[in-house]
Structure formats: C-alpha cells, structure tokens
Specification:
Layout (H helix, E strand, L loop, with lengths): L1 H24 L10 H50 L1
Helix pairs in contact: 1-2
Length: about 90
C-alpha cells in the first residue's frame, strides 16, 4: 500500500511539473492547459539545446530525481499516517 501512495504522489508531482513547465514556456496571452507531451518536449528540447547529449542526460536525471523526491514524500506521508492510526 505504501508503494501505491508513493506512486500517486509521484504522479501528482509529475502533474505539477507539467503545469509549471507549461506556465513558464507559454506567453501570457495563451490560456494554461494540461498538455503533458508538449510540456515534456519543451523540457527535453531546452536541455538538449543548452547542453547537447549531456544536457539530455542531465535533464533526464533531474526529472527522475524530482519524481523520486515526490515518491519518497508519498511513502513518508503514508508511514506517518499509519503510525498515527496505531
């Protein structure tokens, strides 16, 4: 069950990342919309444009690290909630 809580937390973090990337990359006269493919392509393009192949590796590592932090936070929250029940 704690793994499910961690995965849900990581999905929430991914959604926040998509919205943050979309908000940062779109002009102010366009409405904010949830488009994960466009946001991730913008994210990958920006890292590959700046650093080439090394930028893509660093961008992927940064994204995985970000999602791992959300996963760990979800597992930690689940453990704290479980200990409060007992």
């Amino acid at each position: 069950m704690k793994h499910i809580a961690g995965l849900l937390s990581a999905l929430f973090g991914a959604g926040l990342a998509v919205l943050a990337i979309t908000l940062a990359s779109k002009p102010s006269n366009q409405p904010l919309r949830f488009d994960p493919l466009d946001a991730l392509s913008t994210y990958v393009f920006s890292f590959s444009w700046v650093g080439g192949a090394l930028g893509m590796v660093l961008g992927a590592a940064l994204l995985l690290g970000y999602l791992a932090l959300w996963y760990a936070a979800g597992v930690r929250i689940f453990k704290l909630a479980r200990s409060q029940e007992r």
